[in-house]
From TrEMBL:
EC numbers, comma separated: 2.7.13.3
Domain spans labelled HPt: 1-107
Source species: Flavimobilis marinus
Residues annotated with Phosphohistidine modification: H47
Keywords tagged on the record: Kinase, Phosphoprotein, Transferase, Two-component regulatory system
Region span, Disordered: 127-207, 226-268
Ranges for domain Histidine kinase: 306-515
Protein name as it appears in the record: histidine kinase
Enzyme class: transferase
Biological process per Gene Ontology, one example term: chemotaxis
Keyword Phosphoprotein: yes
Catalysed reactions listed for this entry: ATP + protein L-histidine = ADP + protein N-phospho-L-histidine
Cellular component terms per the entry's GO annotation: cytoplasm; plasma membrane
GO MF term set: phosphorelay sensor kinase activity
C-alpha cells in the first residue's frame, strides 16, 4: 500500500473491516429475513462504500455497490423477500467488492477486475429474470495480501446462530449445486476448564467456486454475558437506521442519542501501527533483560534499598510486559469469522450437511501468531469437510444423524493456547494408513507391526502422504499436512492428531502465547548455559552418584530410567552437543515432552527458572537443527535455546525410539486413568499428597531466610515477596521446628506466589486405580492409598487462599502488597 493515497488507505482499511462483518450479517439475514437491524446494518455498509467510491472516482466499485443497493432497497421496502437467490447474488457482490479493493490496494486501480457478470446477475434478480443454466458461480473469496488491518468487531463468544437451508423453487434448482439441507454455525463461550491432506496452506485460502445454498439463520439469546468487544460495536448492534420517510419530531432525540453513542464508541479506540507495537515489545524485552541483571546484583547480601528497588522494578516490569502483550493480543474469533462461509460453500459443493460449532472465540493470541495459525487452521477445516464428514446417506446407514458436526474450540492450558478441530465423521483407519505407507515404501511390514496406533496416524504428516481415493480441487494430492505441521512448529507450536474409526478425528494445535518472551529453565552442560522452554518441561529428577548407578538401566545399548514404573529413554545433552560433562557421577534429568513422546534430557546442573527474551539465531547456527533461538542472561552471558522437538526426532531412533514409544503409550494410559501427586511428609509419620500440576518449583531453604512481618511469615525469593505457610501446622501435625534447612514447595499463579513448607519431599506417585475417600478435616479433600500408605490429599484452594487471599483473583495490586511489606519492615 506504499503507493496508495492516505485517504484511499483509510477507505481500504475501513471497507475490509465492514466486508468481514457483511459476510456474517448476510448469512444471518437469510435465516431471519424480518430483522430490520440486520437489513439496516447491511444497507448502511453498502451505502457507505458506494458513496466513498464515488467520491474517490472508483467507477466499477460504485456501479457494483449501486446495483446491490437497489436490491437492498427492495428488501427494505418490503417489495422483495429474502430468499436463496437474493443471498447468493449479494454474497457474490461482496466477493466482487473485495476483489476490487484488493486490486486497488495492490495495483492502484480497479481496472483488472471484471464486474459486468455480477452486475448483470444482480440486475436479472431485480427484474425477476431466471438465471441461465450457465450462470457464473459466486466469485471466490479474496484474501487481501500484504495489508495490515485492524480486525473486524469480534462476535461475542456466546453468540449462537443456527442456520438451515430452505427449499428451492423449480426455477432455482438449475442454479443450485447439490444444496445441503442444513448448516448450523453456533458459538458459545469457552468452558472454564479445558482438552487426508490438501493443497499447501501457505497460499491464501479460497472457498470452492460452487453455488452456495440458502441458509436460514436463527439468532439465539446469549446464555452468558458477551465478551468485551475489541473494536467498535458492529452496526447491527445499533438502532435501525431511519427509512426514507421523514422522522417525526420525537424520534429526533433518539437519533441524536444513537449518533452520540456511535461517536463515543468510535472515540474509545484508535488504530496503532503494528510496527510501533513491535518496537514496544522489543523495548519491553530489553527491560526484562535489565530486570534479570539487577535481580542478580540484588542478592541476599546486597544493600536492602537495592533489594527493595529491584523488587519494585521486577513487579513494574512484569505489569508493563503484560500490558504491552495485551495490546498485541487478538481474539481467535478474528480468523474464525470466515469459517461459516467457508464451511457453507464447501458443504454445498460436496453435497453434505454440516453443523459448525465454535467454542472459545474470545480466546486471545498474539497477533503475529494469529496470522501464522490462520492458513493451517483453514486447511484443517477444509479437510474435515472434504474427508471427515460423510455423505448424509452414508451417515444414516451408520446410525448417525444426516448432518455431521464440525467443532472449533480454543482455550488456554499450560501456558499455551490449544485450538481443536473436531469432527464426528468417519475417522481415520490405521489399517488403511499402514497399507498406503507399505505400498509407497515408506515403512516395512516389521516396522508397521511394531508401531502404535498413534505413530501410524502421525504418518499423515509425511510429505506427499494421502489416503484419498479421489483427488478434488480441495484436497487429496498429499500436499499440505506436512506444511501444516512445519508452519505450526516454526512458531514453537505442536500438532497432534487423535482419531477413532467411525467416530471422528481431532486435530489439536498447541500454540505458545507469544514468541517474544517465554518462561524457560536454564541448565548447564560443561561450562555453557542452555535454556529449555517450559512448555516442553514436565518435571526434574535429581540423582546422586549412588542412585545413578542403581537407577540407570540399559536396553541393548540405550540408556533408560525407570520413572514411577515406566521406562523413560535418556538422551545426554553432551552427546547431542558433542561436548564432555564435568559431573562426578551424579546427574539431573529434565523430563521433556515432544511429539507425544516423553524422554529424559540429562544435564549437568539446573540453574534457574526465569523469563527469557528470545533473540534470532546467527546464520551459522540455524542449520544445526539443535537450537530454536538465543537469549541474553542476567550476567551478560549468551544462552542458546534448545529445540526440544528437533532433539527428540534426531535422538529417539532405533532401540531408544522403541522405548520412547512404549513410554508414550504407558503415559497415555496413566493420563487417562490417574493424577500425578507430589507426596510429602508432614511429621508424626503422616503423609500428604499435592497435585503435581499445581507445583511450580521445589526448593530447600535456610530457616534464617524466613522473616516475620506482623503475624505472618514471608520470604524474599527471586525478586518477589512470598507469604509462607507451614503445611504440618495447617494439617495439625507436629513439624520439625529444630531443622535448619526446610523443604519448600512454591506455587505460582500470575503475579501471586506462595511458599509452602513441608516436612520432607518423598516421591511423585500416581493415584491410578486408587480409591479416594472424602474427608471433612481442614485442609484436606480426602484420603488415598499411595505406595501402601494412607495419604491425605491437600486442599490447595483452601490453604493457598489462607496464605494469600488474592491468590485465585485475576488482578493483583502489586503496589498495595509492597505497601504492606514496607509497613511490615518498619514495624519489624
Amino acid at each position: 500500500m506504499d503507493g496508495v493515497d492516505e485517504i484511499v488507505r483509510e477507505f481500504l482499511i475501513e471497507s475490509y473491516e465492514n466486508l468481514d462483518q457483511l459476510d456474517q450479517d448476510l448469512i444471518a439475514l437469510e435465516g431471519n429475513p424480518t430483522s430490520r437491524d440486520l437489513l439496516s446494518s447491511i444497507f448502511r455498509t453498502i451505502h457507505t462504500i458506494k458513496g466513498t467510491s464515488g467520491f474517490l472516482a472508483f467507477a466499477k466499485l460504485e456501479a457494483v455497490t449501486h446495483v446491490g443497493e437497489s436490491l437492498l432497497v427492495e428488501l427494505r421496502d418490503g417489495r422483495r423477500h429474502m430468499d436463496q437467490r437474493t443471498t447468493d447474488v449479494l454474497l457474490a457482490m461482496v466477493d466482487t467488492v473485495r476483489l476490487i479493493l484488493t486490486s486497488i490496494e495492490q495495483q492502484g486501480s480497479e481496472d483488472a477486475v471484471a464486474t459486468d457478470d455480477v452486475v448483470a446477475r444482480i440486475q436479472r434478480t431485480l427484474d425477476n429474470v431466471p438465471e441461465p443454466d450457465d450462470a457464473p458461480a459466486a466469485a471466490p473469496v479474496a484474501e487481501p495480501a500484504a495489508v495490515e488491518t485492524e480486525p473486524a468487531p469480534a462476535a461475542p463468544a456466546n453468540k449462537k446462530v443456527r442456520a438451515k437451508t430452505t427449499d428451492t423453487s423449480p426455477t432455482e434448482e438449475a442454479a443450485v449445486v447439490a444444496a445441503p439441507k442444513k448448516i448450523v454455525p453456533r458459538r458459545r463461550a469457552a468452558a472454564a476448564t479445558p482438552g487426508e491432506t490438501a493443497p499447501s496452506v501457505t497460499a491464501p485460502v479460497e472457498p470452492t467456486a460452487v453455488e452456495p445454498t440458502a441458509v436460514e439463520t436463527t439468532a439465539v439469546e446469549p446464555d452468558v454475558a458477551p465478551a468485551a468487544p475489541v473494536a467498535p460495536a458492529p452496526p447491527a448492534a445499533t438502532q435501525p437506521a431511519p427509512t426514507a420517510t421523514p422522522a417525526s419530531a420525537p424520534a429526533a432525540p433518539a437519533a441524536a442519542e444513537q449518533s452520540q453513542a456511535v461517536r463515543s464508541s468510535s472515540d474509545s479506540s484508535i488504530r496503532v501501527d503494528v510496527d510501533l507495537l513491535d518496537e514496544l515489545m522489543r523495548q519491553v524485552g530489553e527491560l526484562v533483560l535489565v530486570r534479570n541483571q539487577i535481580a542478580q546484583l540484588a542478592g541476599p547480601d546486597a544493600n536492602p534499598d537495592l533489594t527493595r528497588s529491584s523488587q519494585r522494578l521486577s513487579l513494574i516490569a512484569t505489569e508493563l510486559q503484560e500490558g504491552v502483550m495485551k495490546t498485541r493480543m487478538q481474539p481467535i474469533d478474528h480468523i474464525w469469522n470466515k469459517m461459516p462461509r467457508i464451511v457453507r460453500d464447501l458443504a454445498s459443493g460436496f453435497k453434505k450437511q454440516v453443523e459448525l460449532e465454535m467454542i472459545g472465540g474470545d480466546t486471545e493470541l498474539d497477533r503475529s501468531l494469529l496470522e501464522s495459525v490462520k492458513d493451517p487452521l483453514t486447511h484443517l477445516v477444509r479437510n474435515a469437510v472434504d474427508h471427515g464428514i460423510e455423505m448424509p446417506d452414508v451417515r444414516e446407514a451408520a446410525g448417525k444423524t444426516p448432518a455431521g458436526t464440525l467443532t472449533l474450540r480454543a482455550y488456554h492450558a499450560g501456558g499455551q493456547v490449544i485450538v481443536e478441530v473436531r469432527d464426528n465423521g468417519k475417522g481415520m483407519d490405521p489399517d488403511v494408513i499402514a497399507a498406503k505407507a507399505l505400498e509407497r515404501g515408506l515403512r516395512t511390514s516389521e516396522q508397521l507391526d511394531a508401531m502404535s496406533t498413534a505413530e501410524i496416524l502421525n504418518m499423515v504428516f509425511l510429505p506427499g502422504f494421502s489416503t484419498a481415493a479421489v483427488v478434488t480441487n480441495v484436497s487429496g494430492r498429499g500436499v499440505g499436512m506436512d506444511v501444516v505441521r512445519s508452519n505450526i512448529e516454526s512458531i514453537g507450536g505442536q500438532v497432534e492428531v487423535e482419531s477413532e474409526k467411525g467416530s471422528g478425528t481431532v486435530w489439536r494445535l498447541r500454540i505458545p502465547l507469544t514468541l517474544a518472551i517465554m518462561p524457560a529453565l536454564t541448565v548447564a552442560s560443561g561450562q555453557e548455559i542452555y535454556a529449555i522452554p517450559q512448555v516442553n518441561l514436565l518435571e526434574l529428577v535429581a540423582l546422586d552418584t549412588t542412585r545413578t548407578a542403581e537407577a540407570i538401566e540399559l536396553i541393548n545399548s540405550a540408556e533408560v530410567y525407570r520413572l514411577r514404573g515406566d521406562l523413560l529413554p535418556l538422551v545426554r545433552l553432551t552427546d547431542v552437543l558433542g561436548t564432555t560433562s564435568d559431573r562426578d557421577g551424579s546427574m539431573v534429568i529434565a523430563v521433556l515432552r515432544a511429539d507425544n513422546q516423553r524422554f529424559g534430557l540429562v544435564v549437568d546442573r539446573v540453574l534457574n527458572n526465569e523469563e527469557i527474551v528470545v533473540k534470532p539465531l546467527a546464520s551459522q547456527l540455524k542449520g544445526t537443527g539443535t537450537y530454536a533461538g538465543a537469549t541474553l542472561m542476567g550476567d551478560g552471558r549468551v544462552a542458546l535455546i534448545l529445540d526440544v522437538q528437533a532433539i527428540a526426532r534426531r535422538s529417539l531412533v532405533g532401540e531408544i525410539g522403541d522405548v520412547a514409544a512404549d513410554a508414550a503409550r504407558a503415559q497415555a494410559v496413566q493420563e487417562v486413568d490417574g493424577e500425578d501427586l507430589l507426596v510429602v511428609g508432614i511429621g508424626d509419620g503422616r503423609r500428604a499428597a499435592i497435585p503435581l500440576e499445581a507445583v511450580t518449583r521445589l526448593e530447600q531453604i535456610s530457616t534464617d531466610r524466613i522473616e516475620i512481618l506482623g503475624n505472618r511469615e514471608v520470604l524474599q525469593y527471586r525478586g518477589a515477596i512470598l507469604p509462607v505457610m507451614r503445611l504440618p501446622e495447617a494439617l495439625g501435625a507436629m513439624g520439625n521446628h529444630a531443622a535448619t534447612e526446610l523443604p519448600m514447595v512454591v506455587f505460582s499463579r500470575g503475579n501471586h506466589n506462595v511458599a509452602m513448607v513441608v516436612g520432607e519431599i518423598l516421591e511423585i506417585a500416581n493415584d491410578r486405580g486408587a480409591e479416594r475417600r472424602p474427608s471433612d478435616a481442614y485442609g484436606s479433600t480426602g484420603l488415598v492409598v499411595l505406595g501402601g500408605r494412607v495419604t491425605e490429599v491437600v486442599d490447595l484452594h483452601t490453604l493457598l487462599q489462607s496464605a494469600d487471599p488474592d491468590y485465585f483473583e485475576e488482578d493483583f495490586d502489586s503496589e498495595s502488597f509492597l505497601a504492606s511489606f514496607d509497613a511490615g519492615m518498619v514495624h519489624a
